[in-house]
Backbone:
């Protein structure tokens, strides 16, 4: 059986590269701003985020509505995290579905942050 020829459109690859670099840059920028404002490094924040007392303290000053949206978003993300961690091993259709689910979660969060 002869090997099947596969073609990839360079524009598609460049678009993925663009998206990765753009969003990774935004992520790094936002982490830097949090570190600068809070004087807590990302590593420390990552460890603190596992501490229920820390989570309670950052939510104490927030409105119940904001806490609800925060918790709901975290739970939805946690539900998807096993697939996110293994995304490169997923079949193409599952990757597409996972991407759409993440976009839905972030869109809801974006709408709340804008209100």
Residues:
């Amino acid at each position: 059986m002869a090997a099947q020829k596969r073609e990839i459109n360079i524009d598609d690859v460049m678009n993925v590269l663009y998206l990765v670099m753009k969003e990774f840059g935004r992520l790094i920028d936002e982490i830097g701003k949090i570190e600068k404002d809070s004087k807590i490094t990302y590593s420390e924040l990552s460890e603190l985020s596992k501490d229920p007392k820390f989570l309670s303290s950052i939510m104490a000053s927030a409105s119940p509505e904001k806490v609800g949206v925060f918790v709901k978003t975290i739970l939805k993300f946690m539900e998807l995290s096993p697939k996110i961690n293994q995304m490169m091993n997923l079949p193409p259709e599952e990757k597409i579905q996972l991407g759409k689910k993440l976009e839905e979660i972030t869109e809801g969060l974006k709408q709340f942050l804008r209100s």
